[in-house]
């Protein structure tokens, strides 16, 4: 079979693994054990409001602090977590953790939590979010959920669920904007409050007129819809300057700060934003 077979039990990290894989139960068991044994950790990456030059919020990003392998990034285990359905439990754990930690922070910053499309189809998600807000004492307007464009979020059920979540005052961000297949129709059907412009457009913004024009158009589109735009993956000062000139509301990326185990007050490039 695969070359990983000789190196121990970590079949879970094989890309392209599917439901049909015979190791499916091993994966699920391993992920569940990790959750029970507190091996997951939430890291936070600052989101900086351009112009104000302050941190407006943080994105919660899960990491697996594996006893033998150290920190494992989400791209290595989210696909397996989605295939097994374990992602629903993991996302809720992250959400609760993020709300609890943000509630203890005495300011107006927000926390953004990624929710897999699979979890958006669970009818009790709005109730879970409401209960979590009550339990942690975080006000709804300090929470935002991030969803990505997939065919699963355009269904009627998902729209109903997202509408209920938005009605509580929780923000809804469309993540990786521009890389999906139905971006614009989502803006009609879903109660979106923010667009997160994918890193792909930002990485090319200084070199490519096409990328710059996509940024400018997205900013203008968002303005017309009265929603915000956050640029993802900002790594260079030159990109930040172009984004500021384009009228982009906020930025996130290694230039401003990497994901860290706690909320960081300082960020790189603070003098720049
Ligand atoms: P995302 O939601 O688009 O998160 C942004 C990703 O870009 C993060 O990767 C972040 O570390 C990375 N990033 C931030 N700034 C820069 C930059 O300047 N340059 C580059 N090259 N990368 C940057 P990460 O943490 O590895 O997460 C990858 C993806 O995994 C996330 O993409 C998200 O889709 C998913 N993910 C992470 N945590 C969760 C979670 O708790 N639940 C679910 N369902 N998905 C999650
Ligand atoms: Mg995200
Ligand atoms: Mg993204
Ligand atoms: Mg992404």
From TrEMBL:
Residues 24-273 form the EAL domain. It comes from the Bacteria. It comes from Rhizobium rhizoryzae. The chain holds residues 456 to 728 of 728 of the full protein. This is Diguanylate cyclase (GGDEF)-like protein.
């Amino acid at each position: 079979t695969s070359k990983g077979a000789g190196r121990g039990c970590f079949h879970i990290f094989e890309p392209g693994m599917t439901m049909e894989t015979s190791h499916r139960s091993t994966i699920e068991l391993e992920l569940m054990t990790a959750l029970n044994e507190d091996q997951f950790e939430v890291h936070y990456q600052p989101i900086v409001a351009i112009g104000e030059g302050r941190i407006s919020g943080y994105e919660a990003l899960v990491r697996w602090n594996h006893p033998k392998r150290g920190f494992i990034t989400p791209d290595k285990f989210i696909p397996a977590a989605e295939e097994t359905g374990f992602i629903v439990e993991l996302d809720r754990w992250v959400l609760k953790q993020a709300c609890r930690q943000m509630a203890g922070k005495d300011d107006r910053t927000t926390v953004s939590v990624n929710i897999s499309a699979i979890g958006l189809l669970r009818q009790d998600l709005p109730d879970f979010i409401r209960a979590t807000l009550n339990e942690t004492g975080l006000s709804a307007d300090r929470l935002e959920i991030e969803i990505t464009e997939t065919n699963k979020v355009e269904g009627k059920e998902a729209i109903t669920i997202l509408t209920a979540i938005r009605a509580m005052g929780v923000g809804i961000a469309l993540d990786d904007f521009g890389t999906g297949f139905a971006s614009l129709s989502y803006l009609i059907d879903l109660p979106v409050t923010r667009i997160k412009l994918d890193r792909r457009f930002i990485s090319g913004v200084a070199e490519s007129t096409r990328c710059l024009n996509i940024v400018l158009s997205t900013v203008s589109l968002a303005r017309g819809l009265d929603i915000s735009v956050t640029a993802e993956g900002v790594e260079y000062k030159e990109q930040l300057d172009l984004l500021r000139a384009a009228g982009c509301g906020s930025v996130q990326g290694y230039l401003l700060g990497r994901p860290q185990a706690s909320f960081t007050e300082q960020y790189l490039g603070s003098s720049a934003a």
